[in-house]
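Q: Could you fold this chain for me?
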Amino acid sequence: MNTTAMIAIIIAVFALAVAAWAVRQTQRTKHLRTRFGAEYDYTVGREGSQLKGESELARREETVKRLAIHDLTADQRDRFANAWRQQQAQFVEDPRRAVSEADALVTRVMIARGYPLADFETQAAFASVEHGQVVDKYREAHKIAERNRSGEANTEDLRRAMIGYRALFEDLVGGSVVAHDLH
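A: Sure. Below is the predicted structure, expressed as structure tokens.
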């Protein structure tokens, strides 16, 4: 085989390898965008590049696979749904307290499902793997709850926080189990 033919084969193999890599990257991006929803853009933005953001999201997937996350039992689901309805009803009388307690209730549900108790960012990151379509609402609710602690949130903010917490809560417990009267 002459040198020109060898060079052509090497170039062809290299081109195929690059094409295969590009296809895998495109599939990976599509998978992560679908799985994580708005969390994809949030993480890519926070990490500063698509490569770093996608690596972080893939790392989360691997970490969550190793956790013992499970569905709630019917009894747990009913107890948490009742607790949520109480928090939502409390909103009318004491919205500030209702938001604080909704934050704590979502954390208790996450722990009951097997998510490790952690700081908010870690909890949100773990939740994003299975609940990527609503974790942005959870982040917004938590920011409002933080402002609520310092007395800076108004009633409309608190209403939005309850709606955000409800979105993740329902996703965690497995469906619409609560009344929807805060719209």
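A (continued): The mean pLDDT is 89.
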